[in-house]
Specification:
Order of helices and strands: EHEEH
Strand order of the largest sheet: 1-2-3
Number of strands: 3
Structural class: mainly alpha
Distance between the termini: 145 Å
Number of helices: 2
Length: 150
Amino acid sequence: MSEPSFPVPTLFQVPNSGSQEEEKKAAGYVNYEVEPGFTIRLRQNIDPGIDPKKLKRIVSNRVAAQKSRLKKLQYVDDLVKKSKELQRQVSVLRSQVEIASEQKRCLESEQREIKECMSAWLERFISKQGEIEVYKAEIERLKKKMDRLI
């Protein structure tokens, strides 16, 4: 029989932190370093006569699951970073909106004042136009009277 193409198990020493629960979890497992920095745990009570293909499938499934978990953690971290960045952008935009709203109120106030001034000027203009028409009519009447006298 040829040698299996999966990694050779190494014993995993868990530092004794005093937690019995951690010791129970670590007891009975063998670690396989599949890739540098990539280790999976298998039970020590695996039958040594297990089919190499089946063991390889178990190892590759564990590797895929661990990669999937790591990928999910990275995805969640990215989402948290994006969320913080978006919250920062929201606060910046909120302050910009407040400034723009204040400018809008000032411009609307100025616009009302200008409309009132224009309305007053228009009323005066119309009034003056009426006076001019009255004066023109008076001038025409006086010219006709002058022409009759001469």
